[in-house]
Design goal:
Blueprint lengths: L1 E7 L2 E8 L5 E5 L4 E7 L4 H9 L2 H16 L10 E4 L2 E10 L5 E5 L3 E7 L4 H31 L5 E5 L6 E4 L4 E5 L7 H16 L5 H10 L3 H10 L18 E2 L7
Parallel strand pairs: 2-4, 6-8, 9-11
Antiparallel strand pairs: 1-2, 3-4, 5-6, 7-8, 10-11, 10-12
Bound molecules: zinc ion.
C-alpha cells in the first residue's frame, strides 16, 4: 500500500492507494483526520477534485469532533470549570463525613461543592443538577411572572427538564412551558429570551411574521441573544441547537422563519 500526505485547500489529507474500484473519503476522531482510500490508478488531480467537492462535509465533520472535544463530560473534581448563569466558576470539591451534599458560590469565580467521601461521579452529577434545577427555578419564577404580565399571557404551568436539543418548549393549548435545565448555565438574558419566545407562541404557534413582531416588541435584541445562546456549547452530551417542531411542542429554533 502506498501512502502520501497531500494538502488539499489547506487541509492535510492522507491518501492511501489501494486495489479498489471507488474512492472512499473519511474523517476520523478525535482530531478530524482526513483519510482517502483511492484506486491505485486514479490521478492525484482527480483525487483532489473528489475531495474538494466534499470539502463542506469534511469541515462539518471536523467541527463536530472539535465541539465534542470541548464538551468532554464533567467528572465533578476540583479544578474543573462549571458555568453558573453564564459565569465560569472554578470547582473545588470538599469531601467530609457528612451524608449530605451542599453547593456554595464564592465570589465571582469559585464554586464549592461539599460531598460525602466516596461519592461517585454519577451521584455528584445528580446532586449538582438538583442544585442547578433549584437555582433555575429561583431565577426563572419572577421572570415568568414579569413576562406573562408584560406580554398579557397567562401560563397555566411551567417546569424545568433536561432536553437534548432545545432550550425550551411549550404547549399553546395547555398554556404550559418547559425550560431546559441547561439554561441554569446560561446568562439571565438567555433565560428571558427563551421565556419570551415560548410566550410568543401562545399568540402565534408558528415562527411567522406575527411571532417575530412580538419578539421585536418585547426583546428588540433577541437575534443577538439567540445567536450567543446557540454559539455557547451545551455542557455535556447535549446538542448545541434545536430544529423543527411538532404541533404541540414548539421549539426554540435557530432560524425564526423555519
Ligand atoms: Zn419557537
Amino acid at each position: 500500500m502506498n501512502t502520501e500526505i497531500v494538502d488539499i485547500a489547506g487541509t492535510q489529507v492522507e491518501v492511501h492507494r489501494k486495489r479498489i474500484k471507488n474512492l472512499h473519503l473519511g474523517v476520523y476522531p478525535p482530531n478530524g483526520l482526513v483519510r482517502v482510500a483511492a484506486p491505485a490508478a486514479m490521478s492525484l488531480d482527480a483525487i483532489k477534485v473528489a475531495v474538494l467537492t466534499r470539502m463542506a462535509w469534511v469541515r462539518r465533520k471536523q467541527d463536530q469532533f472539535a465541539r465534542q472535544d470541548r464538551e468532554t463530560p464533567r467528572r465533578y473534581v476540583s479544578g474543573e470549570t462549571h458555568y453558573v448563569f453564564g459565569r465560569a466558576r472554578r470547582l473545588t470539591v470538599v469531601t467530609s463525613n457528612r451524608k449530605s451534599d451542599r453547593v456554595e458560590l464564592h465570589g465571582n469565580d469559585r464554586i464549592l461543592f461539599h460531598v460525602p467521601h466516596e461519592s461517585t461521579v454519577e451521584q455528584r452529577r445528580n446532586w449538582m443538577n438538583a442544585w442547578y434545577r433549584a437555582e433555575l427555578r429561583r431565577i426563572a419564577a419572577p421572570r415568568i411572572e414579569k413576562w406573562s404580565e408584560l406580554m398579557g399571557v397567562s401560563p397555566n404551568s411551567w417546569g424545568i427538564r433536561q432536553m437534548k436539543t432545545k432550550w425550551g418548549s411549550c404547549n399553546p393549548v395547555k398554556k404550559s412551558v418547559w425550560l431546559n435545565l441547561e439554561l441554569s448555565r446560561k446568562p439571565f438574558i438567555a433565560i428571558d429570551y427563551v421565556i419570551v419566545h415560548e410566550f410568543a407562541h401562545f399568540v402565534s404557534p408558528r415562527h411567522d411574521e406575527l411571532f417575530v413582531s412580538i419578539l421585536d416588541t418585547y426583546m428588540p435584541t433577541w437575534r443577538q441573544v439567540r445567536a450567543d445562546l446557540n454559539a455557547l456549547p451545551f455542557s455535556e452530551g447535549l446538542g448545541t441547537r434545536c430544529s423543527g417542531g411538532r404541533a404541540s411542542s414548539i421549539l426554540v429554533c435557530p432560524n425564526p422563519t423555519q
